[in-house]
Amino acid sequence: MSITLQINGQKYTTDQTEKTLLHYLREDLGLVGSKDGCSQGQCGTCTVIVNGKATRSCIKKLKLLDGAVVETIEGIAKNGELHPLQTAFLINHAYQCGFCTPGMIMACKALLDENPHPTDGEIKKQLKNNLCRCTGYKQILEAMHIAIDIMDGKRPNQVDNGNGWVGESPASKHGVERVTGAPVFTDDFPLEHALEGRLLFAEYPHANIHGIDTSEAEKMTGVVKIITHKDIPGRKYFAEEEYGQVILAIDKVHYIGDPVAIVIADTVEHADAAVRAIKVDYEVLPVIASAEDGLDPDSVRVHPQFPNKYHTSKAVKGDVERGFALADLIVEQEFETQRVEHGILELDVSLAKYSEDGRLCLYGTGQNPTKIKADVLAAMDMTEDQVRYVNRPAGGAFGGREDLVCQIFAALGTYHTRQPVRISLTRNQVNALTPKRHPIKFKYKIGVKKDGTITALRGRALIDSGANNSLGDFLATCTAAMGSGPYNIPNTDFASTVVFTNNTFGGCFRGYGSTQVTACNETLMDKVAEKLGMDPFDFRIKNGLEIGLQTPAGQIIDYSCGFKDCLKTVREAFEKDGIPMPSGEHKKIGVGLAGAMKNQGYGNGMEDGAGTKITLTEDGKFLMHAGAVECGQGVDTIICQVAAQTLGVRYDDIDIGPVDD
After folding, report:
1. pLDDT per residue over 155-184, tens digit each?
2. Which ranges in 472-599 belong to alpha helices (H)?
3. Disulfide check for 432: which of 257, 425, 437, 589 has CB 3.0–4.6 Å away?
């Protein structure tokens, strides 16, 4: 059986009828603008237009598309001019990382093709199947209206970046690539004739391994190599041994995301089949399901060489008991914050190959490329000049790409096969393997005088680290240091304890500890203000930090603190504008007030520094290289803006290359 379909005006015939449209577009035609964020029809990053309708191509088999007319993001710009939607997304910064953007634009185009002047409600309904983890939808909604104005002839179909200096708002650097579906992300740059690698994960959250039998899997069709911990030439841990995160399980598994083996085969399908054929002899162990379980001195240890309770950070100032004795009101409350998945839309993929000069070339993404490369070198027992690591922009990050994931597996695959290797994870595997926001249980006690002066605060945090310590000790330091928030409290005593469990491990996640304490602290502040009969603005302004005062960690604020000014400005805006009316009959408006404090840089006396390299190119423009990773936060853009202003040239005359070492 074969089918014929039209894609971007050109006819194609194929007999791969069981293949999905998404994989056919990306793998056979090289149309990589449509992204794979789940392969389950849940995220919308793969959206194309089929017979005039927005369609999730990852769940549409080719056998259902005979005679279909398909439009992808690569086909909507005409005669060298961007589609009005593409221009509008650039003008209004209606994307950040850009991974969801092609699918989002195609969903918007399908609506405009059918209805050139949709209402906001119709636009929102159209985008119900398209997720965006970075931007939020307000800018996308506004971009739709800009596109409509362009199509109506009310504004030109062009982007004017001007000088693009700091304070101006040029289109983001490499934004055109993101809105046109050009290659940007790791999996958009396939290696020719690459083998495919898949991971075997733990069958139990806690078990000893008495043997791994790969004999049947090794005989299966397409299998080239099966790799276990014995095949790692160097250090067998992602980081220092005390962090406990093994690359491949050695003699036990600690959570369901522990990789046990890597299968390298000629296709993903053959690799998946071989993974299922590997037999592991497990001795199932008791599970440490919570931090409280881990504190039990009689409980089994997650890591036999370390206690489950492995770190405590404290921030103590003044005499907290004296502070409570001076208080007229004491309030106590317990809180619990949950484990949260980052929801990064780009699936984890890494590629590896040997260059002609024998250097191992590795391609992937991560927020800390220097550490990623260092960990790879240690695991591979290689020197700096033996490995080249190209760190691609991230399709979302939020802290979740601080940890090494697929890069080391791809490196091992190429090392043992001497062939190009692609390692990829499914959405379910990403959910199992990668770190989450740490769940924390808090106990707070606060003392205040009748006039609203806070006299003392005591806090205790019990942190579920999961099976590994992905900077859990540093998170404990952050929660302790920021535990009492942006308030001048003379007597504080905060302690944060981190405990190993058999849960998916916690890692960096937007705010890194400051978010959890803020949720608790600000709830407590509102409760105290209510009990005192004080306005929540007045209560916070009375106790807020300002220049000359001391933070909970003992730092004197010496030159900048805008907390009180911010509170006053927000209150003035409320008093002037009032509370907005609900947008519908069955809707209500909720109004809340909260303050927060967050460290800038590493802190703890560590020096923060940065540098960049600028090259004058043959065409009279400038090419920059920096170590910061673009993951939607706009670092490439602002670096180029700063450089343009410093050099006195236009923003469009400066480009920035990949993080490449």
Report:
1. 999 999 999 999 999 999 999 999 999 999
2. 472-481, 514-532, 536-543, 563-577
3. 257
